[in-house]
Amino acid sequence: MAVVASAPGKVLMTGGYLVLERPNAGIVLSTNARFYAIVKPLYEEIKPESWAWAWADVKLTSPQMARETMYKLSLKHLKLQAVSSSESRNPFVEHAVEYAIAAAHATFDKDKKDILHKLLLRGLDITILGCNEFYSYRNQIEARGLPLTPESLASLPPFTSITFNAKDSIGENRKPEVAKTGLGSSAAMTTAVVAALLHYLGVVNLSSFTEDQYHGRKDASNLDIVHVIAQTAHCIAQGKVGSGFDVSSAVYGSQRYVRFSPEVLSSAQNAGMATPLTEVIDDVLKAKWDHERTKFSLPPLMTLLLGEPGSGGSSTPSMVGAVKRWQKSDPQSSLETWRKLSEGNSALEMHLNTLCKLAERNYNVYECVINACSLLTAEKWPERANEPSQAEIVKELLGAREAMLGIRYYMRKMGEAAGIPIEPESQTHLLDTTMSMEGVLLAGVPGAGGFDAVFAVTLGASSKNVTKAWSSLNVLAMLVTEDPRGLSLEDNDPRAKEITAAVSAIQLQS
């Protein structure tokens, strides 16, 4: 009866800061880095005395962090109460569990509620696993004396344990030594847990989804329920209503995104202790969710690269706060900067969409031009335009580069005005160097910027040369690429897949 669901991490390519306010859009790419949630019954059968219980047992396990927490779930109030824990609690998973079960209560009739009650009395055994790409293993690679290359990252076992600092003298909880890479682990984790639970409890059926259903062309009501519950759980757990692009991409995949109005979550935010959780969830399910999402993915023969410069992380909330203070203190200048950024974002989106259409119209010509440009720096690309159809493709490529340079300029300007390093000087040097390499279309800082990571979009097979150049610049290229899929129901425990693959590899070698 085990249900395994996975949800992807993300890269916000355009729309940093702007996506916080409607109607500004952001282009968010989902990735091959996925968070998994495995849900199964804790007990094989209901014990006879269980019928009198008002509580159900819930076990949450995070093997990578060596954490296991036991809870009692009140079947009346649908609230979790921790009874034993090896570490600090996870509010994202706790809210995901409570809200998913409340969604079942809010939508089921009496017969289904009786079945739900029996299912919950068997307990819930929940395991969460995140791909290595969500975490930084740079320090471990350097400590082993390995080169800063994707091959070194690939040598780590899947779902590698995250080491911990020792407890301090006053007994505070230990914290992971391994930093996050900014792919939205909490949103992917929350979405995976909600999806697995809603499917396990029978609220939704995620058995088979087509690409059209992910993007609303056919019935996507099951995905929409997952989205609403995951957004609510994630926002309440983090204590604020964010833009939600990370959860939306975790559910639906790569997209052009415009945020929902924060008011749709007012009932969840303002709910008191006396308000039944089923009423709160019923309200958010019936609210008018006005977010907008449009199908988007990189044009063919283009590769997303992410690099970790190793210059320390950045606090997105504090950077967002600084930008908001700047907006209040200098509304005229900030409005003009945001207008220019919005224009740049729209221009980049337009050029990339046009390239997709040109690839559809005549793929052979498109492939020829992309492969030729992958061997050259951008200023030499026009040399490969010997006929109008080729010139049109090169024009769009150069237009996309120009739009990205404009976005970077105004992001730097905003950072300087707000007093924060949105594109720090070290990143500027790295990005300029990257954009001058053969076959590089774009380079920038994703999301809110700072020191976390850089991204590049490369043409053809040029990505290998970029990762080598990054390594020489002390930048670790991550094993992250675009995967436009959203959440997915998996066949097996992902760890079993990795073991099978490892055994097969050993047999081939012998």
Automatic annotation (TrEMBL):
First and last residue of the signal peptide: none
This enzyme's EC code(s): 2.7.4.2
One Pfam family this sequence matches: GHMP_kinases_N
Residue stretches spanning the membrane: none
One cellular component term from this protein's GO annotations in UniProt: peroxisome
GO molecular function: ATP binding; phosphomevalonate kinase activity
Keyword Endoplasmic reticulum: no
Domain named GHMP kinase N-terminal: residues: 180-253
Entry keywords, A to Z: ATP-binding, Kinase, Lipid biosynthesis, Lipid metabolism, Nucleotide-binding, Steroid biosynthesis, Steroid metabolism, Transferase
Stored Gene3D superfamilies: 3.30.230.10
Pathway(s) the chain acts in: Isoprenoid biosynthesis; isopentenyl diphosphate biosynthesis via mevalonate pathway; isopentenyl diphosphate from (R)-mevalonate: step 2/3
Any one GO BP annotation for this protein: farnesyl diphosphate biosynthetic process, mevalonate pathway
SUPFAM superfamilies: Ribosomal protein S5 domain 2-like
Homology family: Belongs to the GHMP kinase family. Mevalonate kinase subfamily.
PANTHER family assigned to the protein according to its UniProt record, in alphabetical order: PHOSPHOMEVALONATE KINASE (PTHR31814:SF2), PTHR31814
Official protein name in the record: phosphomevalonate kinase
Originating species: Nicotiana tabacum (Common tobacco)
